[in-house]
Amino acid sequence: MAAYNLAGRRDNKYKARLKITVFEGGLEAFRDAVEAEFARTRAAFSGVDQALLAEIEAAFAPPALPLRDAGAYHAAWAADADFRAFATQNVVAHKVPGYGIVTVSLKAHGATPGDATAAQMRKLADLADAYSAGELRISHEQNVILPHVALADLPALHRALAAAGLGTANAGLISDIIACPGMDYCALATARSIPVAQELATHFKALGLEQEIGQIKIKISGCINACGHHHVGHIGILGLDRAGVENYQITLGGDATERAAIGEKTGPGFAYDEIVPAIERILRAYLALRQAPEETFIETFRRLGAAPFKAALYDEGARDAA
Ligand code: SF4
């Protein structure tokens, strides 16, 4: 940051990005500036401040999570299909036995990704107090995480979330899309993002393919600034302006996990009304190409590369039929 603060284009909001500083000055020059700054600050570094470290540790002390009887959880699992879907899709194991980490999806099908009303936010705060040791976190995936939920409380939490319109069981599925504000709200946008996400979510729900497709990360940005992280989406969608008309470039194979990868551009972009059918062609190719239902989209992509997906994407016969 110190190096960037000296070299960055803070004079121009369109260029005030680290990536632009690196692009304009070159990686070597920026690396040299960082090393010089590091040498300067390192000389003044006198070791970890133990008092400060203790203060930070105390502020982030894990909550007490007593052992609870999970009978209510097992009963709801056996009796309630909606609960089962929610517990399967939106809950992962906590390191403390008998507890789970709950993703509250802000991706109801057809809604604006990441949006919550004031009433829903108040409800979430109350539910965090009641069921998650007073803690909730906002994730970069535009959802809310309740990090310390006893499985015993999960049925009651699910009922409360569902009553508030927050019970969508789609974490990690195709409708759990990251989309930047795009043309609807952002002055820098060159294309719409939110309506693309909404149409993808409702389209695949209507096709009944959401569960079948399984885990997939679709990410959408409305300009090259990439706030929607499209470059690290399994399927990335970048909205551009081509002579005053929205045009969407698709990338495949990006990954934001420990196997980080930048997505590969597929080829020519698509008009707004072509983008949903284009994504459908890619995903129907995936369903045909995967070795087993357990093989996720990104695993199939890593095994086969981009070629078969590009072939499906630019299959003129399929496009005409659509
Ligand atoms: S990526 Fe989206 S939010 Fe970011 S600057 Fe571009 S249009 Fe705006």
Brief synopsis:
With 322 residues, the protein is α+β, with helices and mostly antiparallel strands. It contains 14 helices and 10 strands. The chain has helices at 2-7, 18-25, 27-43, 50-59, 71-79, 81-90, 118-131, 154-163, 194-207, 210-213, 275-289, 297-304, 307-313, 316-321; strands at residues 91-93, 99-104, 137-138, 144-150, 178-179, 218-221, 235-242, 245-252, 264-265, 270-271.
Written account of the structure:
A hairpin with a 5-residue loop joins strand 3 and strand 4 (144-150). 43% of the residues lie in helices and 14% in strands. 34% of the residues are buried. The model has no long low-confidence stretch (mean pLDDT 94). The radius of gyration is 23 Å and the shape is globular. By secondary structure, the protein is of the alpha+beta class. Strands 5, 6, 7, 8, 9 and 10 form a six-stranded mixed beta sheet that branches. It has 14 helices and ten strands. It has helices at residues 2-7, 18-25, 27-43, 50-59, 71-79, 81-90, 118-131, 154-163, 194-207, 210-213, 275-289, 297-304, 307-313, 316-321, and strands spanning 91-93, 99-104, 137-138, 144-150, 178-179, 218-221, 235-242, 245-252, 264-265, 270-271. The chain has three domains: 2-45, no CATH class; 71-163, Sulfite Reductase Hemoprotein, domain 2 (Alpha-Beta Complex); 178-321, Sulfite Reductase Hemoprotein, domain 1, CATH 3.30.413.10. Bound molecules: iron/sulfur cluster. The site of iron/sulfur cluster has 13 residues, from loops.
